[in-house]
Every structure is written in structure tokens, then in C-alpha cells.
Amino acid sequence: MSAMRVLFLTHNHPALQPGGTEAFAHGLFRALRDVHGIEGLFLAGTTAQLRERRPGTLLQAAGDAPDEMLVSLDHFDRFYLSQGDVYGLAALGPMIDRLAPDVVHLHHPLLWGMEGIDWIRRAAPRAALVATLHDYFALCPREGQLLTTDGRLCHGPAPDACRRCFPDRHGSDFTLRGLGIRSAFAAFDALLAPSDFLRGRFAAAGWDASRIALMRNAIAAATPAPHRTAPDGRRDRFAVFGNVNRFKGTLVALAASARLSKDGIAHGLAIHGGTAWQSEAFLAEFAAALAAAPDAAHHGGYAPADVSRRIAAADWVVVPSIWWENAPLVILEAFRHRRPVICGDGGGMAEAVRDGIDGLHAPIGDVAALAAVMRRAAETPGLWECLVAGIRPPPDFPAAAAEHLALYRALAPGRRTRRGDRHRARAATA
User: Glycosyltransferase subfamily 4-like N-terminal domain: which residues (predicted)?
Assistant: First the structure.
């Protein structure tokens, strides 16, 4: 039997900008290729902000791998999720035709846009189409955050609520946006969600829940970092991993640390993450919050290979995000290294972390409550050991690839026949 051929489409490449969706899609693609023998192509969208476009082509190499390429997609409307360069998308047609994919898997509509979905169907009419709903971009025009402008959690799109976030937009804009996106996603043979919570948000927004299957994320296998030696028995070293920004709750974590320091509670908080693409106003707030938290330190950005060394100094991983989150990979990383997690009490965070079993919950965005939970974590004898014992190993990429491959095969059982028909049709045309 010939190898299955799969086309992956993402909105970025982890070599250019690290992010959970890009990292998962890339790891899954490589596991499908290296462990399960699929053939394929990984196309990552990019813009001039990250990689200058080369004259005469939309394509350039992403690195040394011949099956990973960048596609310049600069003409993108972030409100409508619309890609204006339809001629550029059409120029990719001959390459997709040569690949003749059995499955096309879209991991994010950003940059590709709704026009990209239409292009996929036209360029690979016989392929099964799969899309993973990694976040809420398809629901929320405010960068998929499901947060109001004053920082409150939003339960989903509604005309009046969305207009409060976008007062300059006409109500019909939100109607057209929702109809256009849902119509485009109707083309897919399978929709996947990495968490039950995310699936529920889409169902509440009117999407057909029966079409959305649960398929959890995974991370690369790694030897767990050794636990820190604590001669006094206190487990009071906390760490935050991920991009430093407002939505990730970096300021909330720093404020909680400042409160603990003011109350004389011994602890340490390490902030691991870069500050790229943040506004000057936020960077000023971050600097002030850091200065006000004497027991906290910012250690800058990191590469995936650095996680083991950095997490070795931590007893706990804190995920202080102020939005619902969906299925944060940092939680899986913490569990891979056998660190209990302190996170918000809602969204994909609360689904991934079992309160009192492998971590602790705190009300989302509540500085005082987070400080109280951190104090409890540091001062309760035996709590850390109990939670460490409750941690289950997270799934790795080979396991996730096997699960995805089973889905692909169910959707495209006649792939050899279809490919043979296509090649014969091409030869007849020639």
C-alpha cells in the first residue's frame, strides 16, 4: 500500500515565532512522517513582519527540511479572517496538485483566511478536509480572546456584546463575519477540538457539536527534570512559562508575588518568556510590576530545549491566564516534568488540571486569590508530594499521530484508487 499523503497548513512556523498551535502542528507532522511513514508537506503562513518576502515567489524554505515551507500571506483581514491575495493562493495550485494529498489538515485560519479554505477544496477536490479548532478566533473578532474591553470573561459572540467591543462596527458586520466563517468551515469532513470546554463554546455559538470531535494535544517526550532539593521541606519556588503579555496573566502573577512579599511569605517567582510584539504601554506596566515584586525575576525568552533546565529550579508551574484558555501546552510540559500546576478555575485550564489531584485552582484574574493559593502551596506540609503523585504522564506526539492517522484513514479509505484516478486523468490531459 502506498504511503498516505497529508498537507498541513498552519498560520506560522515555530522556528519564526513560538506558539502552542504552531508547536503542536509541527510536532504532529514530524511524528506522522518519522514514526508512521506518511508523506506530506507542511506549509506555514508568514508575513513580512517575520520573514521578508523574496521576489517572484510566495514560497521559501522554513529550514533544512525539504517538506516544510513558508508561504508569504500579507494581505489578511483579521476581523473577517479574509485573505485578499487570492491570486497568490491560486499560484500554489500546481504544487498541491503534484502532492495529490489524501488529507488536508488546517490548523488555523489565520493568514489563510476563508478564501484559503475555498482554495483548499478547489486545489485538492478529492482530499478529505480536517480542521482543528485550536482557539476561539472563529468565534471572537477580538483576537479570539473572548474578553471584553474592560477585561471581563465573555461567554461568546452576541450582536450587542460584540458591538460594545467594536463600537465603530455596524451590527451587520458581525452577522456577515459569523455566517462567512461557519459557511467556510462547513466544507470540512471533520472538525477537531483539543478540549471539551472549547467544543462547548463553539456549540453555544451555534456550531453543530456533533461535527466536532475531541482530540487532545500532545508534547514531545522528554526525561523529567529532577525535582529541586528542599532541605527545609518548603516547596515555594514558582515559575510562569510562555509569552509575556496581558492575556497570559503575567501582571497577575507578579501582583500576587508582590502581595506575598509584603506579607513576609518566603517564595520565589521566575517569569520565563519573551516580550516580542508587546506595546510600549504594556512593557511599562510589566517593568513596574516586576519592580514592585522583589521576589520575582524575569529570565527572558527560551527555546524548547531550555525548558528542562529552567523548570528544574521550580516546584510549581503557575498558569495565571486571564482568559478562558483552550488547551495550553505549558500544562502538559509541567506534567511531563512532574510539576503540579496552579491555574485558573475555568476554561481549558481547569479541564486539564484536576484541583487537589495534580494541581490547584484559583479564580481567574483574582490577584488576592492567586496569592492565597500560592501561600497554601508553599506552606502546607505534604501537599506538593500528594499532587506530584497524582500527575498522569501527558500524551506524546507518536501517540497523537497514531490517533490522527486513524481518523485520516477513516475519512480517506480509498486513497490509492483516488490517487490513481487523478494521475490517469492528468496523463490523459497531457
Answer: 19-219
pLDDT in tens, 56-103: 778 899 989 999 999 999 999 999 999 999 988 988 999 999 999 999
Instruction: For 87-96, write each residue's pLDDT tens digit.
Output: 889 889 999 9
Residue type, 189: D
Judgement on whether residues 198 and 262 belong to the same structural domain of the protein: no
Burial of 330 (0-12, 13-18, 19+ CB in 10 A): buried
Smallest CA-to-CA distance from 138 within 7, 6, 326, 279 is with 326
Question: By CB neighbour count within 10 A (0-12 exposed, 13-18 middle, 19+ buried), where does 370 fall?
Answer: buried
Secondary structure of 241-308 in HEC code, one letter for each residue:
ECCCCCCCCHHHHHHHHHHHHHCCCCCEEEEECCCCCCCHHHHHHHHHHHHCCCCEEECCCCCHHHHH
Q: Please check whether residues 19 and 140 belong to one and the same domain.
A: yes
**Is residue 166 domain-resident?**
yes
What is the number of domains present in the chain? 2
In a domain, 22, yes or no: yes
The answer on 266 and 169 residing in a single domain is: no
Does some domain include residue 248?
yes
Query: 270, 297 in Cβ contact below 8 A?
Result: yes
Q: Check which CATH number belongs to the domain holding 382 and give it.
A: 3.40.50.2000
State the CB neighbour count (10 A cutoff) for residue 93: 13
Task: Please list, in sequence order, all residues whose beta carbon lies within 8 angstroms of the beta carbon of residue 336, skipping any fewer than 6 positions away.
Answer: 219, 221, 222, 224, 393, 394
- Parallel/antiparallel/unpaired status of strands 59-61 and 68-72: antiparallel
**Whole-model pTM?**
0.92
Residue 53 lies in a domain: yes
Domain, as residue range, for 153? 5-218+397-429
Checking if the pLDDT of 181 tops 70, the result is yes
Q: Is 37 left (phi over 0), alpha (psi -120 to 50) or beta?
A: left
